[in-house]
User: Fold this.
Amino acid sequence: MKQKTFFVCQDCGYKSPKWVGQCPDCGKWNTISEETHNVVQTASVRRKIFSDGYNQPKSIMGIENIEQERLKSGIEEFDRVLGGGAVPGSVALIGGDPGIGKSTLLLQVLDRLTCNYGTTLYVSGEESARQIKLRADRLGIEASQLNVLCETDVDIIENHIINLSPKIVVVDSIQTMQRSDIDSVPGNVTQVRESAMALTYIAKSRGIPIFIVGHINKEGSIAGPKVMEHIVDTVLYMEGDSYHVYRILRAVKNRFGSTNEIGVFEMRDSGLVEITNPSEMLLSERQENVSGSVVVSIMEGTRPILLELQALVAPAYFGMPQRTSNGIDRNRLALLLAVLDKRAGFRIQNSDVFVNIVGGMQAEEPGVDLGIMVAAVSNFKDKPVDPKTVVIGEVGLGGEVRAVSQAEKRIKEAARLGFKRAIVSHYNLRGLKLKEDIDVVGVNMVRDALNILL
Assistant:
């Protein structure tokens, strides 16, 4: 058996024959550490993936297309993000901040899948069986066919999977997994990569969906080499913070579905509860007739979501006016304020401007541009916007209001929640077919919208 020593970057996986202070690939300092690799066995592990008849060239017309039934948990928000459920033989990587609810959600999903399909396996390398049992009792889980295994050796885990033949497996977490033939500590680049490849081989060869939990590093990405995200089929991120009870499950990679869908959950004492109507939930505490408050609409995949956007414009008592935003891009806010000053004639560049998306949601699409500007002017003039009006539109540098995608869905969602008027770009009026009781007003310029609303 041949061994070789490398110096490996623990951030990006770059290999160097000698130690260096700065990684030549990612530019990070003091991330290079010495590792001993078992070259022969590591290479054999890589070669055995897809070795069962997949290594022969085939005509694309001669490949049989087999429709695989997805495994549905019954948790609608979770299944939507996956594209309709878990695909047999797929590998999904779920990342998020510590304590965000990754293990809680997967234990709840595993409980539902056990009731629907039979035997499942929860593999934990961080917690004891008693700790998992305590969480299961709190979540009200009583599935007798849900099995718990506390193990970190991937080869031993594979043997248990072969003997148990579960319908689905959860591994929590990949940073605790290790291969006994690799002489390095768990959690480093080599162990994480090789363990992920070994688990992927198990999933593909056995046709078992495997969910892998991954920790988040200081930069906000899944800890370990980026190649780990290339190995798996689906990469999910759970977003949220300790100051809000809402959690967003978002797909950034999905070979079996769209990456635009999100799942919305609320953290309660009994676990994560899915929110099937996020718009109604996010607007439930909105105060009417308050200046600086505007309802906007964003699209998350195929689902429109209405959000409350708040703006506060205050005199700047220091030399440099502040631009603070929560939920939108700060540079985008500065750009819109410049357009508001130049094209609409509102001189608020010398004022402090604060913008917030209520509920901890993120609004990155340009369809909220017009709402941001209306909210800022509303608070600047201290005039409330009609509480039954939703504002939708992208704003260009010339002060023009541009069309947004899927405007009809956004307007129908607003009408369903009781809104009586929608301000949109006049280009969105073309071909618009609505049966709902809502007045749709098209505008050309930002100034036109401000004249109508304020």
The longest strand covers residues 303-315. The radius of gyration is 26 Å. Residues 171 and 402 are 46 Å apart (CA to CA). Residues 40-53 have pLDDT under 50 and may be disordered.
